[in-house]
Amino acid sequence: MRPTAEPRTDAGAKLAILAGGGTLPARIAAAVRGQGREVFIVAFDGHTDPETVSGLPHLWSRFGAAGTILRRLHDEGVGEVVFAGPVRRPSFTELMPDWRTARFLARVGTRALGDDGLLRAVVREVEEDGFRVVGLHDLLKDLLTAPGLVGRHSPDADAERDIARGVEVARALGALDVGQGAVVQQGIVLAVEAVEGTDAMLDRCGSLRRPGPGGVLVKVKKPKQDRRIDLPTMGLTTVERAAAAGLRGIAIEAGGSLLVDRAAVAEAADRLGLFVLGIESSS
Amino acid sequence: MRPTAEPRTDAGAKLAILAGGGTLPARIAAAVRGQGREVFIVAFDGHTDPETVSGLPHLWSRFGAAGTILRRLHDEGVGEVVFAGPVRRPSFTELMPDWRTARFLARVGTRALGDDGLLRAVVREVEEDGFRVVGLHDLLKDLLTAPGLVGRHSPDADAERDIARGVEVARALGALDVGQGAVVQQGIVLAVEAVEGTDAMLDRCGSLRRPGPGGVLVKVKKPKQDRRIDLPTMGLTTVERAAAAGLRGIAIEAGGSLLVDRAAVAEAADRLGLFVLGIESSS
User: Fold this and answer.
1) What residue ranges are annotated as transmembrane (chains A, B) (predicted)?
2) Distance between CA atoms of B216 and B163, rounded to whole angstroms?
3) What does the angle CA A196 – CA A197 – CA A201 come to, to the nearest 5 degrees?
4) What is the SS3 assignment for B164?
5) Looking at the predicted structure, is the pLDDT value of residue B189 above 70?
6) Nearest CB partner across the interface for B91, out of A89, A173, A210
7) HEC string of B117-158?
8) What is the pLDDT of residue A150?
9) What is the per-residue pLDDT for B156?
10) Which residue, A5, A184, A273, B153, has fewest beta-carbon neighbours within 10 Å?
11) Following DSSP, what letter does each residue of A233-280 receive, concatenated?
């Protein structure tokens, strides 16, 4: 086993990427392979972009097939597991359990499906099978949002008040395990995020916006959220959709969110006139 | 002055109806005139349904023209004022203040625009001019939602859990002065309401719903809300949109919301297979 600069991951172990949607899983695969590590992709029907598995060893599966997935990871000699990319709440059909999954669901209870308790239980289950679950930020340290500005625009005093209001609302929603985001304009909460996701929330803000200075998008980690799963994520698309919705900035929790492709985000923010700010957690 | 069965309103006084959207202002006008009272309608450009003022003494105005409106109410000999029907947050153009409004806004501060503080301040301002502000439920007692079922369908144990979760979330949002409603399905919060309104929230639930038993809509009064302004309201349209979104029921706060046309709501709920339940406030 080789020494590693990343104390929370073992660079000598084969890494399984449990791949949600978007481009993040493919980015992680490319970065990790660039470090000389072997990867194995678990792709989920209807969620993972097929491009993700192109040319890489992989398994297509349903969420409910936990037994099959874990057996395959053992067979492949996987040592570490990472959850990458958003997974919209799976439907019951997708969760249709095999024997292993049924035993798991019976233990955690189906009511847990409504909250992060499910994801935390999944992490525990994978760890009890002998795998090490690592966070995306353990693999790519510069993925975690740093405090401070990205790009050259910065919020004025009004925008800072909107950010504070957005943090208050998003944190309260997060404490209830509802969502991670809110949009605030001139003190008015235009939209709050539940299962529709940030993109859909931003899209409806286009018609809800008021005249005058635009709103801000705020995303924070849920207070009890395990940083290894489903951290708030933003990238180029978020900036573009925020601009299309007439917003003038984005504030995301430093150390509690992922910033995908910082250079592209900074370029787009500068070009579109938005500020992007990593805000310190108050807790 | 005649004696009245309604201690909180003076049936001998002329009533000004500050009319928001929908059919509620016209219903109130018809009911009050049926009791032999005189009414005067203040209609707002772009908000009030033109049908509302048909055949009735009225004034079309902008929100910002508080001076003009209050002078006219004095000239008309108005004694009581009621706020009826939803008003989406007015734009800044609509609020463009006359001298009286400017003095008012300067005193309450424009940051109050973001919350119910504005509406409370408007009520105080109208009262300081010598008018009595009454609630819709003071005029039409059976408009206030009663505890218990409307129609013949009732929630099962799963739906009751979804209601409890919805109340928890909607109340927290209300405490933050964000919104009054949430939709919960199988323990998952599908949507939470901000400025888009209940109808728009229901419409997006159609594509967010999961297979299996449908969700429930929960609406509660904001904890600090004055019952004379902007109570959560439901009527026939709410039932029809909830059914179209695949919901199986609606729970609204008894004593803290308005049920418009109870007979039509019961008929539609029975026909469409939804329960409608007035729930007791826990506070």
Assistant:
1) none
2) 7
3) 80
4) helix
5) yes
6) A210
7) HHHHHHHHHHHHCCCEEECHHHHCHHHECCCEEECCCCCCHH
8) 96
9) 96
10) A5
11) EE-HHHHHHHHHTT--EEEEETTSSEES-HHHHHHHHHHHT-EEEEEP
Q: B199 at the A interface (CB within 8 A)?
A: no
Identical fold, B14-140 and B144-279: no
B161 touches chain A (CB under 8 A): yes
* Interchain contact, A114 vs B196, CB within 8 Å: no
CB atoms within 10 A of CB B168: 18
Q: How do the residues of chain B divide into helix, strand and coil, expressed in percent and rounded to 5?
A: 40, 20, 40
Do A204 and B211 lie within an 8 Å CB cutoff? Answer: no
Domain B144-279: give its CATH code: 3.40.140.80
Q: Which pLDDT score is estimated for B85?
A: 78
Residue position matching structure tokens 């095999």? A98
- Residues in B closer than 8 angstroms to A111, CB to CB, are 161, 187
The residue in chain A having the minimum alpha-carbon distance to the alpha carbon of residue B184 is A114
Residues facing B253 on adjacent strands: B279
- Which of B12-16, B25-29, B109-113, B116-120 is least confident? B109-113
List, as one string, the DSSP characters of B34-68.
HTT--EEEEEETTTS-GGGGTTS-EEEE-TT-HHH
Question: In this model, does residue B232 exceed pLDDT 90?
Answer: no
What is the average pLDDT across B218-237? 84
Q: Which residues of A touch B92 (CB under 8 A)?
A: 210-212
Domain ranges of chain A: 14-140, 144-279
* Low-confidence stretches of chain A (pLDDT beneath 70): 1-7, 86-98, 101-103, 105-119, 282-283
pLDDT digits (tens, 9 = 90+) for A89-102: 555 556 566 677 66
Looking at residues B93-113, what average pLDDT do you find?
Answer: 62
Q: Give the SS3 label for residue A14.
A: strand
The position carrying tokens 């874990």 is: A70
The number of CA neighbours under 13 Å toward the Cβ of A250 is 38
CB pairs under 8 A between A and B: 100
From the list B188, B189, B191, the residue facing A113 with the nearest CB is: B188
Token pair listed for B21: 């959207």
pLDDT digits (tens, 9 = 90+) for B126-157: 888 899 999 888 888 788 899 999 999 999 99
Which residues 212-231 in chain B show a CB within 8 A of chain A? 212
pTM equals 0.79
CATH 3.30.420.40 fits A14-140, yes or no: no
On chain A, the residues whose CB falls within 8 A of the CB of B200 are 204
Question: Are B210 and A91 within 8 A, CB to CB?
Answer: yes
Predicted confidence (pLDDT) per residue in A10-25, tens digit: 888 999 999 988 888 9
Better pLDDT: A141 or B119:
A141
Structure ipTM: 0.74
Which candidate in A192, A203, A204 is best for mutational testing of the B interface (most B CBs within 10 A)? A192
